[in-house]
Amino acid sequence: MSTRDRLLACLVAVCWGLNFVAIHLALEQFPPFFLVALRFAVIAVPTVLLVPRPGVPWRWVLGYGVGFGILQFVFLYLAMAVGMPTGLASLVLQSSAPFTVLLAGVLLRERLTARQGLGTAVAITGLAGIAVHRADVDGGALLLPVLLTMCGGLGWALGNLATRQARAPHPLRLTLWMSVVPPLPMLGVSLLVEGPARIGEAFTDLGSTTGLLALAGLAYTVLVGTLLGSGLWAALMSRNPSSSVAPFSMLVPVAGIAAAWVLLAEPPSTTELAWGALVVAGVLVGSARPAAHRRQPRGHAAGQEPADDRREDADEHHEADPDLLGAQRG
């Protein structure tokens, strides 16, 4: 990955870390399944009317929408609604990173380098340390919310693979059209599970402090979490190996725990900060390019990565399944 892409990946991590606080505020007003439908419906309507199609096979748009849009947020919102702490949710959801690396190796035949393996292992150790410490402090997290959040991480990983295979020429368009997938299925689930009465109740006091904060949280998840964050993430996944991009998601809980501390009075301990530093170190190790790849041939402008270098980097880290590539070309 180039230095620019690593900085963009860090920016996405901060945006998504703050997103957990926004989700917490929105769930104070709206039921979880309906909130998923509402979140994506706000984007889907103008997308269908105004945004050109993403220029990729529809199977990858559907896969991205089901994995990243439906599975991730159904399980995450449900977990937070039944008691998953905001900071801990930002941590456990990052199980998407090892899920992505594992699934990419099995399904896309991407090779994991020794450096990436070491960095991922170090970051996972930091995540595990934060989880164990949180469990000790809180008297043990409930099993169901943790399992639900991990299912959300698996959905995110599936969405990552669909994005990687799509290789969208316009990643933001892919992100926007992905948002067309969740609203109708999730509205149906909400009507069946939560019921029209519960949905109607959520709109009765939007002028209250809780309601206004919920609308602000919804606006953040749409504009920053989905449009900015997911758009940048799709761009990164389209031009880099999945195993290089996915570990940056491990920075999200660092931002999420810090945001929960400042905004929701969930203060982290010194131990959590130390484990968080280990997560950062692991991501930096796993994403750094070998020295041979950082050297630029003569004649190239400073800060510009040669095209041949990019091809070499892609060839080293990614061997896609011929059947999948053939299907994509079709």
UniProtKB/TrEMBL annotation:
Keywords from the named record: Membrane, Transmembrane, Transmembrane helix
Occurrences of domain EamA (ranges): 7-130, 145-285
Compartments, record wording: Membrane
Transmembrane spans: 7-27, 33-51, 60-82, 88-108, 117-135, 141-162, 174-193, 213-236, 248-267, 273-292
Coiled coil: none
Membrane topology field: Multi-pass membrane protein
Domain of life from the UniProt record: Bacteria
Stored Pfam families: EamA
Biased composition (Basic and acidic residues): 307-321
InterPro entries on file: AA-Vitamin_Transporters (IPR050638), EamA_dom (IPR000620), EmrE-like (IPR037185)
Region feature Disordered, mapped onto this chain: 291-330
Family: Belongs to the EamA transporter family.
Record-given protein name: EamA family transporter
